[in-house]
Amino acid sequence: MADKPILAAGLDAGGTFTRVVICELEGDRIRLRGYGERPSQGWSRSRLADHNAVSDSMRGALQDAERMGGVSIESVVLGIGGATVSGHNRRGVYEFGYQREITPADLKRAIERAARVVLPEDRMILHLLPQEFAVDGNAGHHNPAGMMGSKLEAFVHLVMVSIQELHELVGAANRAHVEVEETVFEPLAAAYASVVPRDRREGVTLLDIGAQSTELIVYYGDAVFHSASLPVCGDHFTWDVARGLRMSCEEAEAVKQQYGCALEDLTAPRSVVVLPGDPGRGPRERPRRDLNLILEARGKELFDWVRRELTGISMEQNLMGVVLGGGAARLAGLCELAERMLGCHARNALPIGIKDWPKELNTPAWTTAAGLAMYAARRKFRGAERGGNGFFRGLWG
Predict the structure, then answer these.
(1) Domain with 108 in it
(2) Pair (220, 305) in one structural domain
(3) 313 and 252 in one domain?
(4) What are phi and psi of 237, to 5 degrees?
(5) Residue 283 resides in a domain
(6) Mean pLDDT of the chain
(7) Is-contact 253 266, C-beta < 8 A?
(8) Does residue 288 share a domain with residue 208?
(9) What CATH number is associated with residue 253?
């Protein structure tokens, strides 16, 4: 009798589309078994407005992925983002009072002290991410166990989230008939799928631009240095086009995808955009430059917010690259605009490391779902990750 396959599934409930990726563990690697996508319903400005509609979208995407893979899944790793998520750096101090050898238990105690924060009533810690340790005031140690010292300091990054939002999202997934193994901050999952350790060490920002929310995470020295939610998202680009060119949001989204570019100076001379006509009128033509000027203005605002976040943590001069994920990152010219605004290399976040990943999913829109599935695989592969070699140790350090 063949062994039952070990499956890992990620569920990305976005504002426009809900996506599911199911992978199977094969030794120290993972292979795609199935994927599903359904239009999202029940969201309003990145908040759950209709729980049943959100559950229906989840259930449809899950069924599509299960049907493709010929499998049935019972649990998923679920992504979460939106305006209620925030990041904070903290320090915990553990003093021994005399010189002695530092043990792994000491590291744990110092980290626990860093996580002792007084939270507002509706806030909880989603992730506790160690950055580095200092021994007797000397920082820069990633694992000081075995060293001699009398004082140990732990520096960590905390990602916090609204308890209500988290419970509502998990409840929607439960109503879609799956258990939630863990909830993961969406740009953290996207980084798992698209950013290699070397890039994290040198300094990189993953910007996840969704339809209704945008979040970022900053890596430096192979650790999470900063995370935040930004007030500019993909829908803002669409609304600007709708107002500026006088059309519905549905029409503006189609025009943006077909003709749009985030840099006006990349527009071909005398190029025009064919716009839908009003009742009783035929299609209209406008200079394509008008469309792209609108998109460029909003793109500049987005990257200005990113620059402010980087300046606030003194990373504006140390950043080596920015990686753009999320469905809105597919806008032409956005990487070029990011390079001009942030002064570093920019690229799209594309999933890497999943065997049999199809070309049609090689897009930043699917990176978060891929990363959530990889995160689920990591949970099931912890033993090999700690002691073995191969794919997982190389990806997660």
Answers:
(1) 86-160
(2) yes
(3) yes
(4) -60, -45
(5) yes
(6) 91
(7) no
(8) yes
(9) 3.30.420.40
Q: Are 185 and 217 in contact (CB under 8 A)?
A: yes
Residues 208 and 153 in one domain: no
pLDDT tens-place string over residues 238-294 = 999 999 999 999 999 999 999 999 999 988 888 888 888 776 667 788 899 999 999
Q: Cα-Cα-Cα-Cα dihedral of 221, 378, 205, 198, to 10°? A: 50
First to last CA, the chain: 35
What average pLDDT does this structure show over 132-158?
Answer: 94
List Cα–Cα distances, 247 to 244, 250, 252, 255, 260, in angstroms. 8, 8, 6, 10, 15
Q: Determine the Cα–Cα distance for residues 337 and 343; give it in Å rounded to an integer.
A: 10
Burial of 137 (0-12, 13-18, 19+ CB in 10 A): exposed
Amino acid at site 346: A
Q: Are residues 217 and 339 in the same domain?
A: yes
Q: Residue 103: give its domain's CATH number.
A: 3.30.1490.110
Task: Please tell me the predicted confidence (pLDDT) of residue 382.
Answer: 67
Task: Count up the domains in the chain and report the number.
Answer: 2
- Same domain as 122, residue 254: no
Asked if 82 and 136 count as a contact pair (C-beta separation under 8 A), the reply is no
Closest to 98 (Cα-Cα) out of 137, 134, 136, 141: 136
Rounded CA separation 74/11 (Å): 12
